[in-house]
């Protein structure tokens, strides 16, 4: 497995990538965007992100995440670390536990890259 560090999307002065469907990405934009997609390219990480994002109150303790998977705690921590390095989530230690929450800015930028310009978001369940 690669040990490269993931860079948070949209943290440079030039702003976020243009929408993928409006103009071709340049090489640098494609590399940065691919790092975020790579972090999302695992079913466990997608489930973790979904569990964090959908949690009432906006945050969740790692103690509530771990039992949902048939994986060891260090493996869950590794997946959470990759989501964090991609700028999708953040966390804070409170006593013995770590609490995680979604970083909506990165998710919104990612959604913007995948949205057709001038098109409203499709309603859920539509093709």
What does this protein structure show overall?
The structure is a single chain. The protein has helices at 27-40, 43-53, 62-65, 73-85, 104-113; strands spanning 59-61, 89-94, 97-102. The protein is elongated, with a radius of gyration of 16 Å. The protein is an alpha+beta fold. The protein has a three-stranded antiparallel beta sheet. It has a domain at 28-113: Winged helix-like DNA-binding domain superfamily/Winged helix DNA-binding domain (Arc Repressor Mutant, subunit A). The chain is built from five helices and three strands; from the N terminus they run H-H-E-H-H-E-E-H. Helix 2 crosses helix 4.
Main sheet overview = 3 strands, antiparallel
Overall 3D geometry? elongated
Task: Give the termini separation.
Answer: 35 Å
DSSP summary, beta strand count? 3
Count of alpha and pi helical runs: 5
> Stretches where pLDDT falls below 50 for ≥5 residues?
9-15
What's the name of the CATH homologous superfamily of the domain at 28-113? Winged helix-like DNA-binding domain superfamily/Winged helix DNA-binding domain
Mean pLDDT: 82
Strand order of the largest sheet: 1-3-2
By CATH, the topology of the domain at 28-113 is: Arc Repressor Mutant, subunit A
Secondary-structure arrangement, i.e. CATH architecture of the domain at 28-113: Orthogonal Bundle
User: What's the level 1 CATH class of the domain at 28-113?
Assistant: Mainly Alpha
